[in-house]
Write a structure and sequence with these properties.
Helix content is about 55%, strand content about 0%. The longest helix has 17 residues.
Length: about 220
């Protein structure tokens, strides 16, 4: 991942531009876990609709007991709702091993928890790491398409393998959970505002750092 630009410089520029992101928006750690599954292959707006539709039913006890079809209809707005309902059931079965007590989960080593999550059908590395950081307070940097897009445009040479890139990033930023939390959220915000598939570079807060500045871009 060769580049002359320090990752913390990127972090500081984004932090100055957007301020604290207060991400992940959830009332409870379990709601956050549910959101991490619901957000697969959809927008956050659709996830919010599904979470609102679950309402007070959003608990591990309800998801464990609810008929699969009933649960699927409640989360219909998130897309792939039958598949996601099944994944929520699987996640809840795993959580039941800890008596639905997030503090019991957090007492376990991060690498062990990551292995357990990755063993669950339908939970990949990005979803697992999101749960680890935002619900379980374990420092694993979340890699998504936004991360790759922004860093690639900033001139970094990125490895293809998810974990290889994750580890390199972790080696180049402080091992501080709050930075892991904020950095991912800031990258997501920046990708939505400026660093889209077709970038809108005018007024971009990373404009002074980005070699793409001045190239053809989206109309503003």
């Amino acid at each position: 991942m060769e580049a002359n630009l320090a990752l913390m410089t990127v972090y500081n520029f984004l932090g100055e531009a957007y301020g604290p992101r207060y991400w992940w928006p959830a009332k409870t750690p379990f709601e956050m876990m549910v959101g991490a599954i619901l957000t697969q292959n959809t927008t956050w707006a659709n996830v919010e609709k599904a979470i609102a539709n679950l309402g007070e039913k959003l608990s591990p006890q309800y998801i464990a007991a609810a008929p699969l079809g009933e649960l699927a209809q409640l989360i219909r707005s998130s897309g792939y709702y039958n598949q996601k309902a099944s994944r929520l059931k699987t996640l809840t079965e795993w959580y039941a091993q800890y008596s639905y007590d997030v503090e019991k989960v957090r007492r376990k080593a991060g690498e062990e928890l990551r292995a357990e999550l990755l063993a669950l059908k339908g939970i990949g590395r990005e979803t697992a790491d999101s749960i680890l950081v935002y619900a379980l307070h374990k420092p694993f940097f979340v890699i998504d398409a936004y991360t790759k897009r922004i860093l690639g445009r900033l001139g970094y040479t990125l490895p293809e393998a998810y974990d290889e890139l994750r580890i390199i990033i972790e080696q180049n930023i402080p091992g501080d959970l709050s930075i892991y939390n904020e950095f991912h959220a800031l990258l997501v915000e920046h990708a939505k505002r400026y660093c889209m598939k077709v970038p809108s570079c005018t007024s971009c807060p990373l404009g002074r750092l980005c070699p793409r500045e001045g190239l053809p871009q989206a109309a503003n």
